[in-house]
Amino acid sequence: MPNLNAKLNTMNAAAEQKGPLIGIRHLQALLLFLAIVANYVARLNVSVAVVAMTDAATTNPDFPEYDWTGAQKSYVLSSFYWGYIITQFPAGFLVRRFGAKSVLFIPTFATAILSALTPYCISWGGWKAFSVIRVVAGLFQGLIFPCIHEHLAKWSPPEDRNRLGVFAYSGADCGTVVAMASSGLIANSSMGWPGIFYVSAGICAVWCLLWLTLGSNNAPSSHLIGSRERDYIERSMRRQDGFHAKKIPIPWRAIWSSVPFYALLIVRSAQGWANSTMQLQTPSYMHGVLEMDIKSNALYSALPFLAMWCMSYVYLVFADVAMSRQWMSLTTLRKSINTMSYWGPAAALIGIGFLDKDQTSLAITLMTINAGLNAGSGIGSILTIIDMSPNHSGMLMAIVNGIGNIFPLLTPLLVGVIVTDMGSRSQWQIVFGMTAVVFFFGNLVYIIWGTTDQQAWDAEDYLKPSASECIRNGHQLEQNHTTETDIDTKTT
After folding, report:
1. For labelling alongside 103, which of 36, 153, 162, 210 has CA 20 to 30 A away?
2. What pLDDT, in 10s, does the model give residues 104-117?
3. CA 135, CA 341: separation in Å to the nearest integer?
4. CA distance 298 to 187
C-alpha cells in the first residue's frame, strides 16, 4: 500500500507539472484555427466566384455576368497577394509592439467589411474595382500569420507544440474546404454569386466577437487561465517573471547570416508556389480541361483539401508516437514528414497533367492524394520557425511568409501567360510540371541545411556584451584613462 500511494503521488506530481489536459492554451489554438478558417474563406472564395461571375449559365442566371478575359481573371486572382506581401514585414513589428490580440482583430474585422462591399464595388467598377478591393484585403490579411506564429510561441509549451500548432494551422485546410465546397452551392442558390461575399463577411464578424471575449496575448495576462496551467506554460518555456514585458532586440545580422534560416525560407517559398497553384487554379483546371460544371467543380475542388485537413491529424498522431517512443530526433522527424509531403505531391502533379475529361475520376483521385500527402508541411517545416527561435518567431514568420508569398503573386500571372486555352491539357502540363520541380528542389535544400535546433541568436541576451567583453572593455577604458593622465602630467 505505501508503494501504491507513492506511485500515485508521483503520477499526480507529474500531472501537476504538465498542467491540465485541456486548458486555455487549447482554447487559444481553437481561436487561431477559427481565425484562419474565417480569413481563408474570404480569401479563397474568389476562385469559385470568378468562374460564377463569368459563366452565369452554370450558376444562377438572375445575377450579372461579366465578360472578362483570361488575363483579367488572372489579375483578380493574383491581386490579393500584391497587398499581402507588403504588410508581412510590418506585421512582425506590430505584433511585437501591441500583441496578437489587437493586431489579429484588425485584419479579420477589415475583411468582414471589404467582403460585404465587394458586390457593390464590382457592379460599379468591374474587374478593376474587384482587383483593388482584393489588394486592400491582402494588405490587411498580411498581418495574420505573423500574429498566429507569435501567439503560438507565447502559448505552446514544447511538449504541446505539435498538437497546438497543427490544430491551429489546419484551419487553412478547413477554410479552403469551406470556401470551395460552399461557394458553388451559394452561387447556385437564391443569393447568387454576391452571397459568397456576404456569407464570408458574416463568418469574419462572428469570429471577431469571440476573439475580443476569449483571446489573450499570453498566459499571465489571461483572466480565464488557472495558476496551474499558467505556471506550466511559463516554466516549460523557461520564462522568468516579467518576461512578457521585455523588449528583446532582434539580431538582424545573425538571422540574415544563418544557413538554417535560408533553408527554411526556401522550403516555405516552394510551398507558397504550390499552394497558389492548387488553391487558385484548381477550379479553372477542372472547369476547362475536365469540363465540370460550377457546382460539381466547387465540390470536387474542395475534396483534395478535405483530405489535406484529415491527413494533417494523421501526421500529428505519427509525430506524437515517434517522439514519445524516441524513434528519431525532432529534426529527423520534421525532415522525414516534409519529404513525404513535398516529393509525393511532386510525382502526383506530373501524373495529373497527362489526364483529360475521359479520366476525371483518376484526376480527382490524384489531386486528392497530392493534397493529402502535402498536409505534412505544417509539422514538417512551419513549426520549425518556433523550434529555431521562439523569441523571434513572429518576425521570422513575417520574413518567411512575406518572401514566400511573392510566388502566389506571380503564379496566377504566369498561368495566365502559359494557359491561353483553359481546355488545353498540354498547357496545364507545363504548369503542373513546374510546380513539381519547385516542390522537389525546395525540400532538397531543407534536407541538407535545415534544422530544428534553437539558434544561439534566439537568446534574450545575445546582443548584450559577454562578461569577457565587459572585462576587456573595462581594461581598455582603464588603460585609456591612464594614458590620458600621463599626457596631462607631461603637459603640466
Report:
1. 162
2. 999 999 999 999 99
3. 30
4. 10
Instruction: Report the first-to-last Cα separation within the chain, whole angstroms.
Output: 89
For residue 81 the three cell numbers come to: 497577394
3-state secondary structure of 484: helix
Please name which of 352, 371, 372 lies closest in space to residue 361, comparing C-alpha atoms: 352
Q: How far is CA 208 from CA 164, 177, 240, in A?
A: 21, 21, 32
Q: Is 65 left (phi over 0), alpha (psi -120 to 50) or beta?
A: beta
Between the CA of residue 145 and those of 123, 142, 237, 443, what are the distances in Å? 32, 7, 21, 22
For the stretch 443-465, pLDDT in tens is 999 999 999 898 989 887 787 76
What torsion, rounded to 10 degrees, do the Cα atoms 32, 34, 35, 41 define? 140
pLDDT of residue 248: 80
402, 85 in Cβ contact below 8 A?
Answer: yes
Q: All 3 cell numbers of residue 98?
A: 501591441
pTM of the model: 0.77
Query: What are the grid coordinates assigned to 233, written together?
Result: 506554460
Q: Which of 171, 197, 175, 201 is nearest to 186 (CA)?
A: 197
Q: Which three cell numbers stand for residue 59?
A: 450558376
pLDDT, tens digit, for every residue of 223-250?
888 888 888 888 877 776 666 666 788 8
Q: How far apart are CA 198 and CA 206, in angstroms?
A: 13
- C-alpha count within 13 angstroms, C-beta hemisphere, residue 178: 19
Task: Give 213: exposed, middle or buried? Use CB within 10 Å, 0-12, 13-18, 19+.
Answer: exposed
Chain centre distance of CA 271 = 10
- Helices marked H in 142-160 — which ranges? 144-155
Instruction: State the DSSP code for 358.
Output: G
- DSSP 8-state class, residue 380: I
Contact predicate 43/137, CB 8 Å: yes
- Do 115 and 200 form a contact (C-beta atoms < 8 A)? yes
Which of 31-35, 315-319, 476-480 has the highest average model confidence (pLDDT)?
A: 31-35
E strands of 184-294, at which residues?
none
DSSP 23-84: -HHHHHHHHHHHHHHHHHHHHHHHHHHHHHHH-GGGS-TTS------HHHHHHHHHHHHHHH
